[in-house]
Write a structure and sequence with these properties.
The complex is a heterodimer of chains A (152) and B (367). Chain A is 15% helix and 49% strand. Chain A has 152 residues and is an alpha+beta fold. Chain B is mainly β. Chain B has one domain: monomeric porin ompg (Porin, Beta Barrel), CATH 2.40.160. In chain B, 7% of the residues lie in helices and 56% in strands. Classes of the chains: A alpha+beta (152), B mainly beta (367).
């Protein structure tokens, strides 16, 4: 190991695997659409964790109030006027292994509930997002697809 | 100098990490109009309708409840032997005042497959009906039916499955099947002769987020006897998101009032019943192969609210109207079909009084 070539190879290996690991982790970053097509969610990396917020709504206006939709079902009354556009509904995901992010939560504005959540990347443009209560068996999986900006 | 840079290098990510506020739901504003021009990279995921409409009462994953019925009278007839075309006079008519009846209700539903293309749920359920009978009318001996109700009560222990299969954004198939052991058995005397099976299949249309309808057919014991009937499904929520209905006719129909995403009330009715094989713990020959057809109409008000995250409290009260408490003697122990129009004679025609009832439960509800 004292051979400088071996040392160089070891550092190169460590360096490239670290970069590969970071790249795999950041594959999650981007804009995604759930299967119902009602929202678009931008997933970002903040610090070491991943967060997702609503950046687009198919129906941005509340049909009852005729105003932009807000988080009216939030269990915390003080937060019920927070606009849904820009709302952070995926939180605290950490990269576990290739194609899997865990320890996060997903919020459902339809009922104001927050679920435990895991994300699995089926391919680079498809996610399986599973929200669950307590144990994974008590949950539901949705398919999200990657979006990119239109090419001119 | 180098040491200072080293500490600075360490401090920056630490400060950056400390500044993450995961409770902040509303990060800095940005120009959201840019996201109008985003397109799917691959073809879109196939869109399927969901099994719910807005504000539908939550489906229960785990449910623990207690059912209580107030006092009522039970008058039982003399057994009729259709083979000999005679009454079995050794088993005299009986009368009893049931102080109250009550019982535990447990249900577990596990979604073994749950994604947007299909939901397959497996479940188990247990329900009991215990009868508190103290006042036997003087001069009239308790007959065997009253005795077994008093001593053993009625039990249902079953397994079931529910499959929701959407085919696209509009059409879906809903299938339910259950296999229940119904009778006056104890857990050490369970036997397949208590097995009764029910099933229903519904073809449905999802008309947006607020309405789903369906038509289908079912084999059911809801009014006590085995029957084959058409069923209609309608789940609807009004545009104001306050009013709606949840109907699976004829089994149940409710008007729904939504107070918030975490509380609601239902007003309507439910048909409840089963067919119970008797005689498991009573050596009386009179009870052998006797099948009690219990069916009742529950006109009720239900209040449900979230008490903690996914735990919901359910309380209901109403009037329990007896539809059937008659009994059949099964020929060779085999079930038969009478339907609404069959003329087979009952072995025992009984009269059950009507009463108020209430039920409370705590539920873990589904995402």
């Amino acid at each position: 190991m004292k051979n400088p070539i071996n040392l160089f190879l070891l550092f190169t290996l460590l360096f490239t695997s670290t970069i590969t690991f970071a790249q795999q982790a950041d594959d999650l970053v981007g804009v995604w659409e759930p299967s119902n097509g009602k929202v678009r969610v931008k997933i970002e990396k903040i610090g070491t964790k991943y967060f997702g917020r609503i950046v687009w709504l198919k129906a941005p206006i509340d049909s009852v109030t005729n105003k932009p939709k807000v988080d009216k079902n939030n269990p915390d009354e003080a937060l019920r006027n927070v606009p849904l556009k820009g709302f952070r509904l995926l939180k605290d995901f950490t990269f576990k292994s290739a194609g899997e992010w865990t320890e996060g939560t997903i919020y459902d504005p339809e009922n104001g509930s927050t679920y435990s959540c895991t994300i699995k990347m089926k391919n680079k443009n498809t996610l399986d997002i599973r929200g669950y209560i307590g144990i994974s068996a008590f949950g539901r999986t949705d398919v999200w697809k990657r979006l990119e900006i239109k090419k001119q | 100098m180098l040491r200072k840079f080293f500490f600075l290098f360490l401090a920056v990510p630490v400060i950056g990490f400390a500044q993450i506020d995961s409770t902040n739901n509303q990060p800095a504003e940005e120009d959201f109009s840019q996201y109008d021009s985003y397109n799917l990279v691959d073809k879109a995921a196939k869109k399927y309708c969901t099994s719910k409409v807005f504000d539908l009462s939550p489906s229960k994953l785990i449910s623990i409840g207690y059912d209580f019925q107030g006092g009522y009278d039970l008058t039982t007839d003399t057994l009729f032997n259709s083979n000999s075309n005679q009454y079995e006079t050794q088993n005299a008519p009986g009368f009893s005042n049931i102080q109250f009846s009550h019982g535990l209700r447990l249900a577990l539903n596990i979604p073994v497959i749950s994604n947007n293309a299909i939901i397959v749920q497996l479940g188990a359920n247990y329900a009991e009906q215990r009868y508190q009978i103290n006042d036997l009318k003087k001069g009239i001996a308790p007959n065997d039916l009253i005795t077994t109700l008093k001593d053993n009560g009625l039990r249902t222990t079953g397994l079931n499955t529910t499959i929701f299969k959407p085919f696209n954004e509009k059409h879906f198939l809903l299938f339910q099947a259950s296999a229940d052991l119904n009778g006056d058995y104890g857990f050490n005397s369970i036997n397949l002769k208590y097995l009764r099976t029910s099933a229903a299949a519904i073809w449905g249309w999802k008309k947006g987020d607020r309405k789903m309808i369906g038509v289908g057919f079912s084999r059911t014991y809801r009014v006590g006897e085995m029957n084959y009937i058409p069923v209609l499904l309608l789940n609807y929520t009004a545009p104001n998101r306050k009013n709606g209905c949840e109907i699976l006719f004829p089994a149940r129909a409710h008007y729904r009032r939504t107070f918030s995403a975490r509380s609601l009330a239902l007003f309507g009715y439910e048909l409840e019943g089963q067919s119970y094989r008797l005689g498991s713990r009573n050596t009386s020959a009179a009870l052998q192969d006797l099948e009690l057809r219990r069916g009742e109409l529950r006109i009720r008000a239900v209040y449900e609210r979230s008490i903690s995250s996914f735990l919901w409290l359910s309380a209901q009260a109403g009037f329990r109207y007896n539809y059937s408490f008659d009994a059949d003697r099964l020929p060779n122990g085999k079930e038969f079909f009478r339907g609404f129009f069959g003329d087979q004679a009952y072995a025992m025609q009984n009269t059950l009084g009507n009463t108020f009832y209430c039920m409370v439960g705590i539920n873990l509800v589904s995402p």
